[in-house]
Design brief:
β1, α2 and β2 form a beta-alpha-beta unit. Helix content is 42%, strand content 23%. It contains ten helices and ten strands. Strands 1, 2, 3, 4, 5, 6, 7, 8, 9 and 10 form a ten-stranded mixed beta sheet that branches. It is of the alpha/beta class.
Length: 262
């Protein structure tokens, strides 16, 4: 009889372990994969691409990502476009929360980075190590690109006034789309680009000069949120939370983005 009880207890224990295993692995490998649509600002493009690929590999879900400048993403979502996850600068994401297009509780800040500068690979390097050197470098080139509708571009234009070179720079400025600005430098269409530094990562044909001087610097944040229209809110929430997990933070650091969790 004692042996029989031991056998029964052993069987029950194995059943419990099996159930636990199924529950644990099913959270990562769902019985049915879904397709998630992500709309993201351009500043976090390289990070969003790599993090979404890592999420796909881990979960089996498919993630379709589209990029645009922050105001355009907000306009599309406010216009009723379907989206599962939105990735934007925090103030813009807050606007979508206010307009009831993003679930408030889903807001997930995950990183921040400063504004940087780059030139065409192989061109004579420029010194941007301090405010005076940065000013001289800006004045020395023929043209400077920046995202015309992006947060970093708007900040850069305001910075020129602070530096006292707004008039001298007017003829040199080349506002470009968020989808195509660093690439213009790589092709030699403009001499220099000033943009959120993460946007420069991974673009062939450019030389990263570094972040602009700390005295002139601003931080550009990135946050993710779940769209209220999402038909896969559980999976969308998993993706937003994945942006703060160790695998994602490793990707952020590689690109130069400082991970944040609050």
């Amino acid at each position: 009889m004692p042996n029989m009880i031991k056998k029964i207890n052993k069987i029950n224990a194995l059943k419990c372990l099996a159930v636990f295993g199924i529950l644990f692995w099913s959270s990562y490998f769902p019985a049915q994969a879904v397709q998630l649509k992500v709309l993201s600002g351009n500043g976090s493009r390289p990070a969003v691409i790599e993090i979404c690929k890592a999420f796909e590999a881990l979960t089996g879900h498919q993630v379709i990502v589209e990029f645009a400048v922050n105001p355009k993403v907000r306009e599309r979502v406010d216009g009723g476009e379907y989206v599962d996850v939105v990735v934007l600068n925090p103030p813009v994401l807050d606007q979508l929360i206010t307009s009831k297009r993003v679930v408030p509780e889903s807001k997930t800040p995950f990183g921040r980075i400063g504004v940087g500068a780059a030139i065409k690979a192989g061109a004579p390097t420029l010194d941007i190590s301090n405010p005076e050197a940065f000013k001289k470098s800006l004045l020395s080139v023929t043209s400077v690109a920046y995202p015309g509708d992006g947060a970093s571009g708007q900040y850069f234009v305001s910075l020129l006034s602070k530096m006292g070179i707004e008039k001298e720079m007017q003829a040199k400025l080349r506002p470009m789309s968020g989808e195509y600005n660093v690439e213009g430098v790589a092709k030699g269409e403009v001499d220099m680009i000033v943009v959120v530094a993460s946007r420069i990562y991974g673009v062939p044909g450019v030389q990263f000069l570094g972040l602009i001087p700390k005295e002139l610097q601003t931080w550009i944040g990135f946050s993710a949120g779940v769209g209220v229209s999402s038909k896969h809110s559980k999976e969308a929430e998993q993706l937003t939370q994945f942006f703060t997990q160790s695998q994602a933070t490793g990707i952020l650091k590689k690109i130069g983005i400082e991970p944040v969790n609050d």
